[in-house]
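>> received
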Amino acid sequence: MGQRLASLDSRVSPEVLSSELKGPCGVLTGCTAQTGSLVEIRRLYERYRKHAQATGHHLSRADFHMVLRNSPVEGLADAYAGFERSGLVNMLEFIAALVLFAASSWENKVLFLVELFDFDGNRSLSRDELTILCTAVLNGFGSLTTSPHLRPGQLAGLSEEVFSEADSTPDGLITYAE
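>> returned
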């Protein structure tokens, strides 16, 4: 994946996915209680979804702390600082970053992300859903590391390439099996 990102932008190192975590964000991944299981992350996501009906996927500091209340990541001020841009946190990026570092197999992480970004509930991902997934995962990872966030055009190109490779039955949708 690092090679693909580097081919999109010369500023991105091919070793981007092996980058060191930024100091303030290290606490998110420093112990299994923080990285948590996918079950804990699912609970956090469900709390966010209930709250998001009123606020959308960008949360203010107060809303962010309300969603995280009584969760394994409650009280981590540096979590907000690491993900805050323009006064808001993109919760999809935050959740995706937690999934990347969750104590789980890659297969379970992929299944979790497919379910998370399957917004229409049809058990598959459209091009748009895959683009949102790629954006959230890569920007979430970039928030935890020194990696730059990719521009929308770069992300669209990457997600199109991933979609073309993954859609083995050219039906315009990617299933978990694909």
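>> Strands lie at 58-59, 84-85, 88-90, 124-125, 174-175.
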